[in-house]
Structures are given as structure tokens and as C-alpha cells.
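Please, structure for the following, as C-alpha cells.
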Amino acid sequence: MIRATVSFLFVFLFLFKGNAQNKSFIIHTAAFYNFENLFDTINDPITNDEEWTPAGDQHWNTKKYHQKLENLARVLSEIGTSENPNSPTFIGGAEIENQDVLEDLIKQPKLIDKDYGIIHFDSPDKRGIDVALLYQKKQFQPTSYLNIPLYVYKGEQPIKEEAKTDSSENLETEDVIQVSAKNHRVYTRDQLLVTGFLNGEEIHIIVNHWPSRSGGEKKSSPFREAAGALNRKIIDSLQRINPNAKIITMGDLNDSPFNNSVKKALGAKGKVQDVDSFGIYNPFEEMANKGLGTIAFRDSWDIFDQVMVSGSLLQKDYSSFQYWKAGIYNKPFLIQKSGKYKGYPLRHSLTEIGFSDHFPVYVYLIKEKK
């Protein structure tokens, strides 16, 4: 039995099985959302953003831009609120052109009272799309943050033996892989690492947008496997400093929970009992097994958007923050109602300013209130 109540600390009542006494908990939501082409209308001469200008193919203009911001703000304000009266404490985002669009986003009427802070770096991606973290300043105080580059080069070999066949082999994408003619480096997004204190407790968050499937899933797999290996390296470095480090890694991975990048390179497990203290738990593997999805292609669903937690967040001692449960935010207003893509996420088109071609995902962290 679960009941929600609103208070300054966003406390809810949670009744443990076998325990007749209600316990009061603090709850926080950590979410991720691919904003899908959150561009302003200004042509940046150093990136390939011409499509998202008034003269571009999308006929992007100020009115459409502000509608996009309003749409995204509605989604972000509502993620996870079925169990937590507050909107997410953390929001990882992808496909963000620059800091200015984030400043415009957090000033939207549905978000402005949340007082979100922004952590963002420009990445080497040639389309000019980056990752970022939004956080509620009254709940989380960052102490350090850095962008960690992913160095991958065309021609590197993948990890052998794919864990599971994927149905999205030729997934169409605007996110075309850009390769340097000089040194064959693949230009892609950095991984953003943020460390800080959530209500006085240290938490580490990594925000990702791994290389796309441009050119085919198998041919591009080595790049995402390298991204998974970099993610694992970051996690290992945090755990060497503190074996009990609490880590959340989230993002659009452009791979399912079963692909090599997640299962082998990162080493994520789909069952809590298989995760050791230094391991990573992926709650979205079970959802994928049930046929759920965050992105659709040719009437097949997959989960590219995932939030995973370290084994240190799976303990049963709720005197400190622990993982509770995860979800996909796929409310009816986010779904295309008619046409060729009926049932898909309602994305932007020339005739309609939608939301995104991805559904957001989230996890809850809880701690017993003393």
C-alpha cells in the first residue's frame, strides 16, 4: 500500500510487507529525456544546425521554438509525479544545442518555480548537440563536474558475440556519425560527470548520449561499445576513491539493455541479485523483456533510454538514499494519435510541434525520514 503526501521534503508513506508500522520516507526522482533537436533559431557557423533555422528545411522559427519549450516543460514538470509530488530533482537531457536553450527552458511557467540549475558543456558533435544536467538547487548542491571526451576512430573492432539480436538494425536517424578526414576520429558527445550532495549525501551522476546507429547497428556497434567501456572506467575511478560511491548513469545509449555496449562493456545486470557492490543494475532490462519501449521503428519497440544505478544504491538500509523503482513516462498526450506513426512517440514534424521521438525514463531514490 502506497500513499503520497506533500511536504517540504516531499515525504510519502510506504508500508513494508510484514511490517504493520508505516514509515515516512523522502523521495527524489532522477529522470532522463532526449529533447530531440532542441535548437534555437540562430545559425551557428561552427556547427551543422542550418536545418533548424528559418531558412532551413524545418522552417524553424521563434513561434515553433517557444512551443517546443512549452511542450518539453510540461513533460519535465510531470515525470514521476504519480509517486512523488515534486517534479524530478535531476533531469539528464540530450540533443541540446547550447546553454541558452536550457536557460529558456527552465524559465518556462511550468518549471520556473522549481529553480533548476544547469550543468552543460559544448561537445565536439558536429550537429552541435550536447548532454546536460538540470537539478533543483534547493535539493542538490554540485561540488564538481566535468565533461569526459569519448575518443573513437573509424575502423576499430567490436567486442565479439552480440548478446541478443536487435530489431533496429537499420534504424533511421538524423544523428549521422561524423568522421574526421584528418585522423578518422568519430565526433560524438562527451560524457558528463556531476558530483554533489543530495540533501547532504554524496551522489555521482553520469549523463550520456552514445554514438548513433548511423550506417547500421553492427557497423556502428564498436563506437557504442567504446562508450560503454568509458562509462565503466568512470565508474571504476569513482569506486576506487570510495568503494561505497553512489552512482547513477543515465542516457540515450542508442542500444538496448541487451547489446554488448551495455551488457559487456559496461557490465550492467538485469537482476538485482546478480549485482555485487561494485556492479551496475539496469532496471530497464526487465521492461525490455516485457516488450516495453522508449523509441519505435517499423512497429518494433526498443529501450534506448536507460537509467542505471550502482550496487551501493541497492542496499536494504534506508537510513541513506537507495534505489526504489524505475519507469517509462509514456502518458497518452505523448503518443501520436493517427497516421503512419500512430502509437509512436509524438515528435516534431512540419505540421505539428510535438515533444520527442523518445519517451522519458526515470528512477526513484528514497530514504527513511528520521
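The longest strand covers residues 23-38. The chain is about 15% helix and 30% strand.
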